[in-house]
What we know:
The structure is a single chain. This protein has 334 residues and is of the alpha+beta class. Helix content is 43%, strand content 22%. It folds into three domains: 5-123, 2-Layer Sandwich (Beta-Lactamase); 127-164; 173-333, Alpha-Beta Plaits (2-Layer Sandwich), CATH 3.30.70.270. It has a seven-stranded mixed sheet, with helices on both faces. The longest helix has 37 residues, at 128-164. It is rod-shaped and about 115 Å long. The termini are far apart. Its EC number is 4.6.1.2. This is guanylate cyclase.
Amino acid sequence: MTLTTDMLHMLDVLCPMHVQLDDAGRIAHAGSTLQKLYPDISLVGECFLEVFKLARPKRVTTMDDLIATAGQKLHLKKTTDPQTGLKGVLVPLPNEGGAIVNLGFGISILDAVSDYDLNAADFAATDLTIEMLYLVEAKSAAMEASRKLNLRLQGAMIAAEEQAFTDTLTGLKNRRALEHILPRMVNECTQFGLMQVDLDFFKEVNDTRGHAAGDAVLQHVARVLVESSRDDDCVARVGGDEFVLVFHGIVDLEILGRIANRIIAEVERPVPFQDATCKVSASVGISVYDGNGDTDMDQLLAQADTALYASKHAGRATYTVYDPKMRESGPLAG
């Protein structure tokens, strides 16, 4: 049986990854897709076992050995880079001593498509490889869409968490954020200074100038507090005109006193609003956590609160440092 030109054309259409071998094991004809694997040489005339390495079955070195594998699944690799893995099956040609070997990529298909720039035209129309490639492409598109959606959801979640911990009027952290930060610092035995700030005469501003004026004052105070703290400190608005500052690593009372005096002085600056000015002052209470001792957030806030009201009773616009003896001997006012 001699393969005619028409027969070879039919094989090219049905099996674009086939080779026809002569009785010496040389390639007499190669399908167009298989030829793409060797763009720099023509496969015709090459020894099949020199351009393709047979991994299984083993010990196949001659054409007779190769013919003996007829009907078995062949595992091959290219002998040049990239060493693409291939699967194949051999069918002997009657009366000619040659054979037809049909090859396929198997699980190497994705690498092959990329390495050799293959497309649908390089495969038989009935080859399931095409369907698999469509499925892989669809899966990749779905995974990319899922990745982008996850990124958007993560961004939305981060934004929602940030919003949940932020006071909308001033942009400062809120009580919820403070209740998250302070217990962690106590549990980690992190030293910090705690300062409660309460505005004096703020109600008069709201009553005489309106809530818009009150909002302008609160935003002014927020700027003062932020400018008086560092990036790793916490500044929170915990009530209408109540603020808490947590100074990471600062337990020196002299330093905290200087910060308090600066805050008091800046808060007292008149705040322009429309055709008038608004004036408030600030009372401050200070407590410290040195990283030792059995305490919690509520006790520390209560200590600062006690010191704050001592400042109120001392005439406002001042600061007081909490002292355990305060209830017995009175507050220490600055």
